[in-house]
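Quick one:
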Amino acid sequence: MIIYNVTINIDESVHDKWLEWMQEKHIPEVLETGKFIKAKMAKVLLEEEMGGITYSIQYIAENKEILEKYYAEDAERMREEVSKHFGNKFVAFRTELAVIKEYTAHRLNATEYLFTYGTLQKENIQLTVFSRTLSGFNDTLFGYKLSDEKVVGVYPVMQSSKEPSDFVNGRVYMCSNEEILEVDKYEGPAYKRIKVVLNSGKSAWAYVSSTPQPN
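Output:
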């Protein structure tokens, strides 16, 4: 995993307006590019000699390749938006961090089945989304198929099929309700969570394309 860290010192004269804009517009728009799994915003609890108030915004990407796609396709436009709204009222610098290992101190009660067929089967993604690795079992979902098109050209997406014999093989994990909400954030607006019945007879959550399918 790669953390793309943006440290911003914002002038106090525009601080409140900037903070609202960042939380309600800018950070959600960065996540909607599909390049990042999630973002965290933190306030630096030190007084700056230069004045202003400093924040750190951490965007988490699956790998360096996807971060490079963000640089090539989205970064300039996003930076121009900040400059357009706040001009010379801020100073920003950016760093990249490689995640070596993550640790967690507790585990929530797992009561929900989650059917996965893509990146959620990877240990590094599980550590980012759940703060733990998951143990699961193989299962099959009939009446669905993988789309020929991937989200941002990288991530597989499942859609319903007119052919009942179509199927998607996947892996099922037990998660808590809280963890399912974290998966919602990870999957983003390109996916929709639905309940499905697997070949094993188990009822599970699964993520399908949020784009309406042609009749």
